[in-house]
């Protein structure tokens, strides 16, 4: 169905999403990051908007334009992403964590460019907060959707993450199937089990995820 004619299944809802990688500074010119094109998160933000939602997209550094009608907040680090998410959260009905958030950041970013020497360089890394788990644990938590990109054992890891973070819906994919490309193959996990969505363009998958999420949201009530 042409996007403009899709039913407005998220009319009146506010959706906050994260997308892209985070970038954790080592010094003013270097950092560590994750592989993420942002394409799936941006496609989902667009699909939510086309379904009638008010959409805030908190995005790490990616080479993509904000979808029409979507409020984009640009961030670099996981700590910035977390702060922007909590700023956007009041009034949100749905939170979708699509970002590939760095699990660790350098314990201390050097103020000045680190000069090379012939020696081994040790970096000390400290854990980043888990943004999705924190949002899902809020007393008045919005409907939370997680993503899991795995390189093997998708069903086991995806189900484990959904349970650990107490998420009503988790979208799983194998990195071999989707990373960086324009299409993907995903599986949805919810209280009713496993729903394979098959292989399709990220925009089409996003529309199917939105339909599934809207149906669950409807069942849960306003
Ligand atoms: N996530 C998050 N904040 C983090 C880490 C992950 O919000 N610090 C979110 C991601 O956006 C995704 C989900 O949690 O929706 C799962 O992320 P993933 O990296 O697959 O899982 P982790 O729990 O970090 O476990 P691991 O990396 O060890 O597989
Ligand atoms: Ca992780």
UniProtKB/TrEMBL annotation:
User: Among the entry's GO cellular component annotations, what is one?
Assistant: phosphopantothenoylcysteine decarboxylase complex
Can you tell me which residues bind CTP?
103, 113, 129-132, 147, 161, 165
Molecular function terms in GO for this entry?
FMN binding; metal ion binding; phosphopantothenate--cysteine ligase activity; phosphopantothenoylcysteine decarboxylase activity
Q: In which pathway does it act?
A: Cofactor biosynthesis; coenzyme A biosynthesis; CoA from (R)-pantothenate: step 2/5; Cofactor biosynthesis; coenzyme A biosynthesis; CoA from (R)-pantothenate: step 3/5
What the protein does comes down to:
Catalyzes two steps in the biosynthesis of coenzyme A. In the first step cysteine is conjugated to 4'-phosphopantothenate to form 4-phosphopantothenoylcysteine, in the latter compound is decarboxylated to form 4'-phosphopantotheine.
Tell me the GO BP annotations in alphabetical order: coenzyme A biosynthetic process; pantothenate catabolic process
Keyword Lyase in the entry? The reply is yes
Belongs to which family?
A: In the N-terminal section; belongs to the HFCD (homo-oligomeric flavin containing Cys decarboxylase) superfamily. In the C-terminal section; belongs to the PPC synthetase family.
Keywords linked to the UniProt accession: Decarboxylase, Flavoprotein, FMN, Ligase, Lyase, Magnesium, Metal-binding, Multifunctional enzyme
Question: Which stretch of the intact protein is present?
Answer: 177 to 398 of 403
Top-rank taxon of the source lineage equals Bacteria
* Organism of provenance: Pseudothauera lacus
Q: Which cofactor does it need?
A: Mg(2+); FMN
Which part of the chain is the DNA/pantothenate metabolism flavoprotein C-terminal domain? Answer: 10-215
Chain spans, region Phosphopantothenate--cysteine ligase: 15-222
For this protein, what does the record note about how its cofactor is bound? Binds 1 FMN per subunit.
Q: Which gene encodes it?
A: coaBC
Question: What name does the UniProt record give this protein?
Answer: Coenzyme A biosynthesis bifunctional protein CoaBC
E.C. number(s) listed in UniProt = 4.1.1.36, 6.3.2.5
Q: Which reaction does it catalyse?
A: (R)-4'-phosphopantothenate + L-cysteine + CTP = N-[(R)-4-phosphopantothenoyl]-L-cysteine + CMP + diphosphate + H(+); N-[(R)-4-phosphopantothenoyl]-L-cysteine + H(+) = (R)-4'-phosphopantetheine + CO2
């Amino acid at each position: 169905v042409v996007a403009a004619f899709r039913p407005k299944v998220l009319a009146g809802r506010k959706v906050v999403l994260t997308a892209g990688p985070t970038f954790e500074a080592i010094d003013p010119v270097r950092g560590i990051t994750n592989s993420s094109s942002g394409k799936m998160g941006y496609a989902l933000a667009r699909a939510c908007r086309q379904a009638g939602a008010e959409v805030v997209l908190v995005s790490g550094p990616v080479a993509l334009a904000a979808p029409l009608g979507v409020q984009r907040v640009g961030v670099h680090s996981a700590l910035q992403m977390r702060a922007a998410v909590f700023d956007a959260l009041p009034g949100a009905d749905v939170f979708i964590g699509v970002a590939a958030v760095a699990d660790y950041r350098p314990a201390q970013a050097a103020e000045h460019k680190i000069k090379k020497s012939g020696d081994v360089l040790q970096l000390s890394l400290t854990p980043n907060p888990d943004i999705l788990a924190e949002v899902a644990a809020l007393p008045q938590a919005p409907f939370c959707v997680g993503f899991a990109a795995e390189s093997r054992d998708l069903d086991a890891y995806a189900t484990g993450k959904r349970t650990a973070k107490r998420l009503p819906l988790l979208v799983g994919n194998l990195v071999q199937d989707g990373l960086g490309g324009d299409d993907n193959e995903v599986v949805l996990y919810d209280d009713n089990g496993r729903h394979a969505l098959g292989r399709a363009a990220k925009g089409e998958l996003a529309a199917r995820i939105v339909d599934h999420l809207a149906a669950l949201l409807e069942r849960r009530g306003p």
